[in-house]
Specification:
The chain has 587 residues and is an alpha+beta fold. It is built from 20 helices and 13 strands. It has helices spanning 4-37, 42-52, 79-91, 95-98, 108-125, 183-186, 189-194, 207-211, 219-254, 259-262, 266-281, 288-328, 335-360, 365-370, 374-381, 384-399, 439-442, 470-486, 520-540, 562-586; strands at residues 149-157, 160-169, 178-181, 213-214, 217-218, 407-410, 413-420, 424-429, 434-438, 447-449, 456-464, 496-502, 507-515. The strands form four sheets. The protein has a five-stranded antiparallel sheet with strand order 9-8-7-6-10. The N and C termini lie far apart (124 Å).
Length: 587
């Protein structure tokens, strides 16, 4: 029989091991993501996506009206575009492209070396928030500088400092204006770069780990960043342990149970503290791009996860308190509704957090949301049709194929939209009955919206009697064309009148035009006027509109063409005899 004491010790060790392994997995995942995002390839792409999603920085001067000028192919139209473009080129080691952002007259090799030195200076000494760089093509006026110059920051290395300036190159007839790193700044870069020393910690790292790379990333980063993150995790655990001990002491003095700790609030709190530590330590990163990624992406993504987790725990706590109160009041029938509401709200929080994270990392949330398994969500709710109708409402509101007051054709029904609800849409038909269509079904139906048209099609086929002569027909065609060209309510460019066929009992004319009206009642008025005037034209031509009819002609049998028939037969026989004689002579 196993010893119960040993079993208890073994179980305690297993629980401890599982907790440590769970936290270790979080450390490994975050460290791997951080290393890859800080690398020269992934970091450059992530920075490009992140900065492209940032809102424009507020400007102190009104934006000038747009002018028809060509766009700079390198994106140097604003100080923001020049800084981001240079950083993207530098992160991919494309120094030839990076040199295009410098206002320097040096030869290509020296200019590329200058770009590399500028990148070193920015990485080691500049603390920059890209949101503060102007996105205005004119820049932001600054008192200490001329109108065509902008200061983006100051790089400080040891006891030296360098003001980073951008100059605006004025436009010409063949090229647009663009911004470059000023020559005044570049003249001081080489001297400052020569005084740069390697980071202090590199002196303690083997040279092979610094020079060798794995997946484009120095090997020492694969070791250093997980180590730093592990230290941060240990610091977070220490802070939360002290905080939990203090909370327990306060509740013990109050004589109550620490509900906050029982609800599991320490986990979200750890994540939020970690996000703050990452944000605070971001300025210590080695490169400018890495600092942007750690502060604007990693720290904010971790913070979003922490806040989402905190909201979920809050919903759990509120629900538990409410359920306990419902049990005391014997209102058990409301518990299921309350828990369903908690599930829905937690799903909403998760979706919002996911969309926010996708937005921060530069991924289009629309393509991801449309790929989610909506069928699984519907089965979990056990209300597939309700979920289908709710999402149908979202699609109708987003795409706006119809709105309240629009006259539409839905399926085989015509009517005016009276209301678009959360579950269904109500339509008042021409028969003044009320048609209710579920939004899930409506989202997949073919809807023809007459209210959104800007012009109405005027098309009629008119048959004239067969007694109409060609001259009469020409007169009718010309007069109707003149009517359509000169009428103020008809678009003359698309109007046409043509004889299209010889019908069974009429000469058919097609009248084709557009009336630029959206109101169907007003169109009917114009159509009535046009048809009446066309009738006047036909009457003046001395002809009339044909009715479906059939004419029978009575005549005696005159054996038409009997003499010509015999003549043709004799001619064909003569040709055959001649051909046979010619063949006999040849043989």
């Amino acid at each position: 029989m196993p010893d119960p004491i040993q079993c208890g010790v073994h179980a305690a060790r297993c629980r401890l091991f599982n907790r440590l392994w769970t936290r270790l997995k979080y450390v490994i995942f975050l460290a791997l993501a951080s290393v890859l995002s800080a690398g020269p390839v992934w970091g450059q792409k992530l920075l490009q996506k992140a900065v492209s999603n940032q809102p424009p920085a507020p400007q102190t001067t009104p934006t000038p009206p747009p002018q028809e000028v060509p766009q700079d192919p390198l994106g140097r139209d604003s100080p923001y575009g020049t800084v981001v473009g240079f950083l993207k080129a530098a992160e991919s080691d494309d120094w030839a492209r990076g040199a295009d952002f410098l206002d320097s007259k040096q030869a290509a090799p020296q200019k590329q070396e200058l770009a590399r030195q500028l990148k070193l200076v920015l990485d080691r000494g500049l603390s920059l928030d890209l949101d503060t760089v102007s996105k205005n093509p004119e820049g932001v006026p600054q008192e200490q500088w001329r109108k065509t110059r902008n200061e983006i920051g100051t790089a400080r290395i040891a006891d030296q400092s360098l003001v980073i300036l951008l100059d605006r190159v004025e436009p010409t007839a063949k090229r647009p204006p663009y911004w470059l790193f000023s020559a005044e700044t570049l003249n001081q870069v080489p001297e400052l770069a020569r005084n740069l020393e390697a980071p202090w910690f590199e002196a303690y790292i083997p040279k092979a780990l610094v020079e060798n790379r794995f997946l484009g990333i120095p090997v020492f980063r694969w070791i250093l960043i997980p180590l730093v993150i592990s230290i941060a995790f240990c610091l977070v655990l220490l802070i939360t342990a002290v905080l939990g001990f203090a909370i327990r002491g306060v509740f013990r003095l109050l004589g109550t149970s620490p509900v906050v700790l029982r609800a599991g609030f320490l986990g979200p709190l750890r994540v939020l503290i970690l996000a703050y530590l990452v944000f605070a330590a971001a300025p210590l990163a080695q490169t400018l791009v890495a600092r942007q990624i750690w502060r604007d992406i990693v720290a904010q993504v971790v913070a979003i996860l922490g806040f989402a987790w905190l909201l979920a725990r809050t919903l759990d706590l509120v629900t538990d308190v409410a359920v306990a109160r419902l049990r005391r009041t014997n209102s058990l029938f409301r518990i299921a509704h309350l828990r369903l509401a908690r599930w829905v709200l937690k799903a909403v929080v998760a979706v919002i957090a996911l969309v926010a994270i996708l937005y921060k990392t530069g991924i289009n949330p629309t393509t991801v949301v449309t790929g989610l398994g909506l069928g699984g969500v519907a089965l979990a709710f056990a209300a597939q049709k309700t979920i289908e109708n709710v999402f149908g409402t979202i699609m109708i509101v987003a795409d706006q194929p119809l709105r309240v007051g629009d006259f539409c054709k839905i399926g085989d029904s015509l009517g005016t939209i009276e209301d678009i609800g959360l579950r269904s849409t109500r339509v008042r038909t021409l028969n003044h009955t009320l048609l209710t269509v579920p939004n899930g079904q409506l989202a997949s139906m073919i809807v023809e919206n007459y209210a959104s048209r800007q012009r109405i099609w005027f098309r009629h086929v008119i048959g004239l009697r067969y007694e109409t002569t060609a001259d009469q027909l020409r007169y009718v065609l010309e007069e109707v064309r003149k009517l359509l060209r000169e009428h103020p309510k008809v678009e003359p460019n698309d109007a046409r009148v043509r004889l299209i066929r010889f019908g069974g009992s009429s000469l058919d004319l097609e009248i084709f035009a557009y009336v630029p009206l959206a109101d169907y009642a007003a169109f009917l008025e114009v159509q009535e006027e046009l048809l009446l005037r066309i009738m006047d034209i036909i009457e003046r031509a001395g002809t009339g509109i044909a009715l479906p009819s059939q004419t029978t002609y009575l005549a005696e049998d005159s054996r038409l063409g009997a003499e010509k028939r015999q003549e043709i037969i004799e001619r064909v026989h003569g040709q055959k005899e001649q051909e046979q004689g010619d063949q006999a002579m040849v043989s």
